[in-house]
Write a structure and sequence with these properties.
This protein is of the alpha+beta class. Helices cover 34% and strands 14% of the residues. It has 4 helices and 3 strands, in the order H-H-E-E-H-E-H. It has a 3-stranded mixed β-sheet with strand order 1-2-3, covered by helices on one side.
C-alpha cells in the first residue's frame, strides 16, 4: 500500500507548473496538433503591446476538430479593447493552410493578468521597455 505524502505531491505540483510553458493553459494537456496551432498563433501580435498573443498568455485553450476547424479560447488584456477585428484578421492569416476554418471564443474569466505571460513574453516585454 502506498502512503500519501503531501510534501511529495506539492513538489510534483511545483514541477508541473515550472515545466508548463503556457501559464494561461495550466492543467491542460496539449496534443501535437494543439502545439502546431499555438506555434502558428505566435504570428498574431497584440497591436498595443507588440508581443504575440501566445506569449502574452491571452490564449486559454485551443482545440482542433476532426473537420480541421480550430476553436480558440482567447481573452484580451482589457475587455474594452477595440482591436478584436485586427486580432481576428491576423489569426486568419496565421492559421491559413493549417485549418479549414476557426472560431475565437472571447472569454473574460478568469481575467487576464501578468501571471499568465510566458517567460518568452516577459523577455519580449522587457526588450520593449516594460518592467515585468
Amino acid at each position: 500500500m502506498t502512503e500519501y505524502a503531501p510534501e511529495a505531491a506539492a513538489q510534483d505540483d511545483e514541477q508541473a507548473v515550472v515545466s508548463n510553458p503556457y501559464p494561461a493553459m495550466a492543467g491542460r494537456e496539449l496534443s501535437p496538433e494543439d502545439e502546431d496551432l499555438l506555434e502558428a498563433l505566435r504570428d498574431v501580435v497584440d497591436p498595443e503591446l507588440g508581443v504575440n498573443v501566445v506569449d502574452l498568455g491571452l490564449i486559454y485553450g485551443v482545440d482542433l476538430g476532426e473537420d480541421k476547424v480550430a476553436t480558440i479560447d482567447m481573452t484580451l488584456t482589457s475587455a474594452a479593447c477595440p482591436l478584436t477585428d485586427v486580432i481576428e484578421d491576423q489569426t486568419r492569416v496565421a492559421l491559413e493552410g493549417l485549418v479549414t476554418d476557426f472560431r475565437i471564443n472571447w472569454v473574460w474569466l478568469p481575467p487576464w493578468g501578468p501571471e499568465k505571460i510566458t517567460e518568452d513574453g516577459r523577455e519580449q516585454l522587457r526588450a520593449l521597455g516594460f518592467n515585468v
